[in-house]
Design a protein that fits this description.
single chain; 222 residues; alpha/beta; Rossmann fold; Alpha-Beta Plaits; 2 domains; 6-stranded parallel sheet; 5-stranded antiparallel sheet; 9 helices; 11 strands; 32% helix; 29% strand; elongated
């Protein structure tokens, strides 16, 4: 599996998302069945391909099955949106995001395998690019424009270190306001919420509840 992101559907939202990810250094596989849409972005990403994304063999041939993330940014064709999401799930792509224009459509997309669904009218491509580039967010509550409280798994390399040792606030500008942790280290099924002191060591299965600016949260390691 690679850290590549497949962006399927290169309208205004998808093409902006693909460019933003490429500019941030992420390998992008940009796909659309419309040749004109692909040509418009060809010089802005590493891979731009014309194909029917409901064809699993075509997706495999372009390395999409090995991508770490896929974003289905198809706008108008809801049936294609669902079919592509199902196909990506069957290929084993671990993280699938999709775009919806209604709450009903969002529910369907989640049911067939989308991890998160973007209501494109409300959320900008740049913000979603930041989410994909940053740590894996389990839950997010926006409490002010550009500021959120998020839950993320303990980042790689942080377990066994205290917040003071990691200098989280100084390095990233965010606050770890609470930790969801196992009551017993050897039994991760029984959880409690704790407010961490600076010397509290993080555990591998901890979930950190973090508050800060979205752009700072996006800089946290995955």
């Amino acid at each position: 599996m690679s850290d590549a992101v497949a962006v399927i559907g290169l309208g205004r939202f998808g093409s902006r998302l693909a460019r933003r990810l490429h500019e941030a250094g992420r390998e992008v596989i940009a796909l659309d069945r419309d040749r004109a849409a692909v040509e418009r972005i060809r010089d802005s990403v590493r891979h731009a391909v014309v194909l029917d994304a409901t064809d699993s063999e075509a997706l495999k041939s372009k390395g999409v099955a090995q991508a770490g993330v896929a974003f289905v940014a198809i706008g108008e064709d809801f049936e294609a949106n669902v079919l592509v999401t199902v196909t990506l799930r069957e290929l084993g792509v671990p993280r699938i995001f999709a775009r919806a224009r209604s709450l009903r459509a969002a529910r369907v997309l989640r049911a067939v395998g989308a991890e998160n669904v973007v209501m494109a009218e409300d959320e900008a491509a740049d913000r979603w690019a930041d989410r994909l580039l940053g740590p894996r967010v389990l839950n997010q509550i926006e409490f002010h424009e550009g500021h959120s409280i998020v839950e993320i798994p303990c980042p790689a390399g942080w377990a066994g270190h205290s917040l003071a040792e990691l200098h989280v606030r100084a390095k990233f500008g965010v606050h770890v306001v609470a930790i969801r942790t196992a009551i017993e280290a050897d039994d991760p099924s029984r959880l409690r919420i704790v407010v961490p002191g600076p010397t509290r060591e993080l555990r591998e299965n901890d979930v950190l509840i973090i508050m800060g600016r979205d752009e700072d949260i996006a800089r946290l390691p995955g």
